[in-house]
Write a structure and sequence with these properties.
This protein is 38% helix and 14% strand. The chain has 9 helices and 8 strands. 47% of the residues are buried. Helix 4 (88-95) links the parallel strand 1 (74-78) and strand 2. The chain has helices at residues 18-25, 33-45, 49-69, 88-95, 108-117, 134-143, 170-180, 198-211, 221-226, and strands spanning 74-78, 100-105, 124-128, 154-158, 186-192, 232-233, 239-240, 261-267. Strands 1, 2, 3, 4, 5, 6, 7 and 8 form an 8-stranded mixed sheet that branches. The protein is an alpha/beta fold.
Length: 269
């Protein structure tokens, strides 16, 4: 199996990656055959799966705009994935060209591609880091020169916490990050859910366990809402992806009651 020129040395091309599968669902080009096969299997189980990916991406853009309008000028995007159209730095720097963005992801392909895109951008960078090791991640963020933890931060946990097992305590990981953020910071979370379509969620969760060493966890509304403990929720609270501050009909990739994702934004007071 030939390694593409864009793939870093040592990357495992025989194991599907959530970041690269997501890239495949969005129509990206930085994925391997194993990722495309896994994405196609998911689409066979749930034909509207690409709509979920688009809906999640649209939520990310809206959340960044909301945080920017609230005065946030530095963003820590954990589990950022492979760069595609409408990246955090593109949205934030359109509002303020000096807005600072640090992308962090465990996938070396995601980090490499982000680094390539960000060449020449002095206000954005990418690091390889693991959400499950928050102290190390926060240290990398502080040493990056882009994130100042004495100033409000826009913490982005978009489509990443459902990759964390229950025994890895996702709620506590969010709390650890919250405690490190100053007052006035925000968190944006999106998460796969079993709330609307439990059978589809169960099928995708089982498939992901076979296709990826990471796997997916579709959690209920109560579990996802609990991740915002200690944050003041922004209206309308935890809702289906397309229902969080839609800006136009173009944001409604999924019909009400059909989304496999929930999302919300909270503020630290």
């Amino acid at each position: 199996m030939d390694r593409p020129a864009w793939a870093p040395e040592g990357v495992d091309m025989t194991q599907a990656s959530p970041a690269r599968m997501y890239d495949a669902l969005l129509g990206g080009s930085h994925n391997f055959e194993i990722d495309r096969k896994a994405a196609e299997m998911g689409k066979k189980l749930v034909p509207d799966l690409p709509r979920l990916a688009l809906s999640n991406r649209a939520f990310l853009r809206r959340a960044v705009r909301y945080l920017s309008d609230a005065g946030i000028r530095q963003f820590l995007d954990i589990g950022s994935g492979i760069p595609t159209a409408g990246n955090v730095h593109e949205v934030a720097q359109q509002i303020d060209p000096r807005a600072r963005v640090l992308y962090a992801d465990i996938d070396p392909v995601a980090v490499t591609q982000a680094g390539t895109i960000l060449i020449g951008n002095d206000f954005a960078a990418a690091v390889q880091a693991d959400l499950r090791k928050p102290d190390e991640l926060l240290d990398l963020a502080a040493r990056s020169g882009l994130i100042d933890l004495s100033e409000p931060v826009g913490l982005l946990l978009v489509a990443v916490l459902h990759l964390v097992r229950d025994d890895e305590q996702p709620r506590e990981l969010v709390a650890r990050l919250r405690d490190a953020m100053p007052a006035g910071s925000y968190v944006a979370i999106s998460h796969l859910t079993s709330a609307q379509r439990p059978e589809d969620a169960a099928g995708l969760e089982a498939q992901s366990a076979n296709d990826s060493h990471t796997g997916l966890r579709f959690r209920d509304r109560a579990a996802i809402t609990a991740m915002f403990d200690g944050w003041e929720m922004i209206e309308p609270g935890v809702v289906e992806l397309p229902l969080w501050h839609p800006e136009s009909d173009r944001d409604l990739h999924e019909a009400p009651g059909r989304s496999l994702g929930l999302a919300g934004v909270g503020r630290k007071v």
